[in-house]
Amino acid sequence: MEFDHILIRYGELALKGKNQKKFLIQLQQNIRSKLKQFPNVSVKRSQGRMFIVLHGENPYPIMDICKTIFGIHSLSLAIKTPNDLTEIKNAALYALQNAGNKETFKVSVKRINKGFPVHTMELNQILGGHLLTNTSGHKVDVHHPDVTIKVEIRAEATYVTSSVLEGAGGLPVGTSGKSLLMLSGGIDSPVAGYLTMKRGVDIEAVHFHSPPFTSERAKQKVIDLAEKLTAFGHKIKIHMVPFTKLQQKIFQDTPNGYSMTVMRRAMFRISEAICRREGILSITTGENLGQVASQTMESMHAINDVTNYPILRPLISMDKQEIIRISKDIATYDISIRPYEDCCTIFVPKAPKTKPKRDRARYYEEQLGYDDMIQEALNHIETVVIENNAAEKQDSFDGLL
Ligand code: ATP
Ligand code: MG
């Protein structure tokens, strides 16, 4: 006997009513795509659960990958048996014996198949008794067991599991549309991208760079960050915007206190234009209220003026320490702290206004007349597509519905 399946629970998805099928198909497709490197495994849907059939593959690297897939609430190694009491007893015993050094246990039966002849309570007792008789040193503790042997009796078969691993939670990437992530080389924006993906959103990225003031290595940093983010979703297209001319013009011709505001307005204008071109309906940033002087309410008010696209700011309520903790968890932190400067850190005005006014920002922008330069930057965007390591070409999701 061996653990031959991984049982996937998707919690939140159960609430999605008639959209549920779409969510489930996307989740199944995302799991398949992440597990491409294991050609023997298959991914099946069954009422309320998903199963990875291992076909002899080592489950542990597969479970590690599953822990990064949004939409998975929790997962467990499982043994599949026929709906037969003797077989179920054997599987429960195997699960307990392989649960590690656990002293106390309880059995929890879920009888989804109401046709199964033994009722839930009775089955709990029969299996508990069987485990006590056939092991030594184990005790039952129904309130705080070290391990729960879960037995799900379903129409087609019974699945027996022991330990439960926490999944990434959230919604399957690809079920909530697409957002354009403004990706700098800093700590915050990759975390913002990750959190947006957690809500099921696919992302493309935009990065503003100012060669030769910013180096190739700063650009590479952004590519490496995007590569880390693909672990949680699909491939990511990065739009690299040449920003040197615009930035120089803005910093020469705008009163010092407003150059930052006008520059950020230019970034949002370009981002919105990319959204229009790509059919993307929102922009995501790593902005966080009050973290730095440029991120005040007044500053957001003055910058946001140029677009009525929804701006997702998933970090808005977070403390820096929380953001850093997530960036370490998702392995972007070490890349973000590489010392190569982005365009915003190089062109920093001496004294940026912490409380810029919309009207003044508009006025200085009009004085600049930078529309042609914005268009030129848009015309010279370079795109890079960062593929997910494990994923190959995505199956068409619509075709499956
Ligand atoms: P981060 O750590 O993400 O760089 P930050 O704390 O440095 O953020 P700001 O410099 O005020 O904050 O930038 C706010 C947001 O603007 C960033 O989180 C990012 O979404 C966007 N942004 C800033 N610089 C760039 C850039 N060069 N390219 C693309 N987006 C940028
Ligand atoms: Mg930054």
Automatic annotation (TrEMBL):
Its EC number is 2.8.1.4. ATP binds at residues 182-183, 207-208, 264, 286, 295. It is found in: Cytoplasm. Pathway: Cofactor biosynthesis; thiamine diphosphate biosynthesis. Its main location: cytoplasm. GO terms for molecular function: tRNA-uracil-4 sulfurtransferase activity. The keyword tRNA-binding applies. SUPFAM superfamilies: Adenine nucleotide alpha hydrolases-like, THUMP domain-like. Residues 60-166 form the THUMP domain. Keywords: ATP-binding, Cytoplasm, Nucleotide-binding, RNA-binding, Thiamine biosynthesis, Transferase, tRNA-binding. InterPro entries: Rossmann-like_a/b/a_fold (IPR014729), ThiI_AANH (IPR020536), ThiI_fer (IPR054173), ThiI_N (IPR049961), THUMP_dom (IPR004114), THUMP_ThiI (IPR049962), tRNA_STrfase (IPR003720), tRNA_sulfurtransferase_ThiI (IPR050102). It is an enzyme of class 2 (transferase). The keyword Lyase does not apply. CDD domains: PPase_ThiI, THUMP_ThiI. It catalyses: [ThiS sulfur-carrier protein]-C-terminal Gly-Gly-AMP + S-sulfanyl-L-cysteinyl-[cysteine desulfurase] + AH2 = [ThiS sulfur-carrier protein]-C-terminal-Gly-aminoethanethioate + L-cysteinyl-[cysteine desulfurase] + A + AMP + 2 H(+); [ThiI sulfur-carrier protein]-S-sulfanyl-L-cysteine + a uridine in tRNA + 2 reduced [2Fe-2S]-[ferredoxin] + ATP + H(+) = [ThiI sulfur-carrier protein]-L-cysteine + a 4-thiouridine in tRNA + 2 oxidized [2Fe-2S]-[ferredoxin] + AMP + diphosphate. PROSITE patterns: THUMP (PS51165). It holds the Pfam family ThiI. HAMAP family: ThiI (MF_00021). Belongs to the ThiI family. Catalyzes the ATP-dependent transfer of a sulfur to tRNA to produce 4-thiouridine in position 8 of tRNAs, which functions as a near-UV photosensor. Also catalyzes the transfer of sulfur to the sulfur carrier protein ThiS, forming ThiS-thiocarboxylate. This is a step in the synthesis of thiazole, in the thiamine biosynthesis pathway. The sulfur is donated as persulfide by IscS. This is Probable tRNA sulfurtransferase. The lineage of its organism: Bacteria, Bacillati, Bacillota, Bacilli, Bacillales. The gene is thiI.
